[in-house]
Design brief:
This protein is an alpha+beta fold. Helices cover about 15% and strands about 35% of the residues.
Length: about 120
């Protein structure tokens, strides 16, 4: 009995040593776009709203403006619940336009063209 106990312990240790091998994982359903996704350019997130300002214009209309974080775009609307008109510029500080609207400036006084009309001075 004295000799079988050490032999059993050695056999148990040899069995556990064999358990260290990792199982082989076979990918039976490879991603068909893996190469395209690996080589794709980085995704740029859309800009977020940096700050919102309401302006009263010369014709007494109120325009709500959401300035975006890219400093080249904004959303404009005449009523808070309207869908916004998105205006963009090629570079920071240039005239933003689109959807019949135009906007220049970002401070207390801006120039806003509403629905294709001539730009007018608007103050916050």
């Amino acid at each position: 009995m004295k000799h079988t106990l050490p032999l059993a312990a050695v056999a148990a240790l040899l069995t556990l040593a064999a358990c260290d091998s990792k199982p082989e994982v076979l990918d039976t359903n490879p991603d068909p776009m893996a190469t395209e996704l690996a080589n794709a350019p980085p995704v740029e997130l859309p800009p977020s709203v940096q700050h919102s300002v309401s302006y009263r214009c010369k014709d007494n209309r109120v325009v709500y403006v959401d300035f975006m974080s890219d400093d080249k775009s904004a959303n404009l609307r005449l009523n808070r619940n309207d869908l916004p008109a998105h205006v963009t510029a090629e570079a920071k500080g240039e005239l933003m336009s689109g959807n019949g609207w135009s906007l220049s400036g970002t401070g207390e006084t801006v120039q806003i063209g509403i629905d294709g009309g001539a730009p007018q001075s608007c103050k916050s």
